[in-house]
Amino acid sequence: MGDEAQSLVDQTEGLTLQDTDPYIRTDGVAAIKKEFLLDEPHAEEPVENVKKEKKEKKAKGMNKDRLKEMARMTTNVRAASARLCPSVYMPNVKCKHGEKCTSEHDIGTFLARKEADLGDVCPVYEQRGHCPFSYACRYGNAHLTEDGKQAQKEPAKPYVETRNAKNMHIQMAMRKRKYDFSRSIQFLETLPDCYHKRKGARASAPKAKDFVANDSENKPVAPAEEDEQDVADQEPEQKVGSMEREKRRITMKELAGKKYVAPLTTVGNLPFRRICVDLGADVTCSEMALATSILGGVPSEFSLVKRHASEKIFGVQLAGGFADTMAMTAQIIVDEFDVDFIDINMGCPIDVVNQKGGGCSLPTRPTKLYDVMRGMRSVMKDVPLTIKLRTGMKEGVLTADETLAGLIAAGCTPDLVTFHPRSKEQRYSKLAKWEFVEPCVKAVPDVPFWVCGDVLSWEDYYQRLENNPIDGVMIGRGILIKPWLLTEIDERRHWDITATERLDIIKNFVWYGLDHWGSDSAGVEKTRRFLLEWLSFACRYIPVGLLEHPPQHINQRPPYYKGRNELETLLSSPRASDWVAITEMFLGPCPEGFDFIPKHKASAY
Predict the structure, then answer these.
(1) Which residues form the C3H1-type domain (predicted)?
(2) Catalytic choice (137, 348, 360, 539)
(3) pTM for the complete prediction?
(4) Which of 50, 303, 317, 380 has the smallest C-beta neighbourhood within 10 Å, fewest atoms?
């Protein structure tokens, strides 16, 4: 910890929140007008808080087993529903399971078992002018002609295909170890032998020298069999590792003052980013992608780099702890995909990422960090390289300024720094330490410097921007709670958005989600799942018209209250069952056996 940072800790020790940040109330509870207050909760406690732990311990942290439980639930739900094999209605697609396929191959039999349509209008058909999910679509009758064929029409607006979506040939190249990594190898050969024999390295981990160059005699072949979620993305065989770029590269200094939506794991998906763009976002970034998973050809990881045409400035965030995997992945991204920058995740607090050398742990290993920076730089051509980091690992031990100064001294200057002034240990609790911003800015002179933390109103945004020596403010949880914050920033006003207007935004998310994940049964349930993830944050919003002293601050919990109408009350409910009810307004009843387990046992305020 630098002397200036230690002095800062000493000065702020014992101070109240109001002492260190005059913009935020200290009581932790939002002041709501008396006529909307309730003596008793308008709903039961959130389901995540119902089960009492031993010794009455307060529920906190993540539900670490939820992914397994939800995966098991999804498998059971899919097994119980009628499914039509994509080989029946998708051109040039063969059944990947053969005699073991559990999906229907006869259209008539499938239609007899299929659940009732969810509505008379198919969102995919309306947006595209045709529905690639054909008879499997849960809105199938909307595009079925009298003679039983699939209808087509001109959409109201020209449909633009999602970028970076046709990547199956790259996935297969990764799985078959057929890709030209000569640029990465050129850098990796400069590293000492001990690096390649590092302790803990898996023998099965992808290595640059294991890949053969992609030439005319040894090209990866586009598969005829694909995962159902990628089946609409199939494309002819094509050469990989040779994408030409003609677009003008932006410089990170051009971003100054633009509205930058943070990379948000799980909830920062493409449909949600489209919502943000609709409401005023200028810069967007993918969810965190793991470098090793990209190199392993994992389809779900490749889906994270997809970019909608409306995303004006778009970056991909990578997480990893070693120069070989990070350089190889960066080469794939810049050669094969349409991106404006790549961001290194040095701020993820999740243990599984840190245990593998990524996230918050990467800055604690300076030599590895410098190798990662140099390796990625060597393969990224003219694509900017940015970083996002926290104050350090432990609460009260501020090391980010030393990390940044070390990068400059090592000749590894990033093109832009985004700083989240919280520690790994702190995660998202308590308030961000904005007073530590200036020492970090001084450590990287002439580098565009952005900060994120605790912005939930346009006043928060401009106060942070104008009172700190920074180039911009990145917005994270505030966008999840109220994405229209982007509009408020543009118009410098508190938008007392109505419940109906909020529901319209949710409807747009559903339409974008069905276009992205599909309108068949699997796509509908995936859209429902990610909508529920978002609603678990959106319920924290308190309408402006209900507040005694607007604006709401991110550390304030609402007391029990009712809205101005039933819909506003429903949208504010902390109950997962009410979130499910909201999804059923657009996606119909949940299938039998469906369950949603919130990501966190308790919300961080």
Answers:
(1) 121-146
(2) 348
(3) 0.87
(4) 50
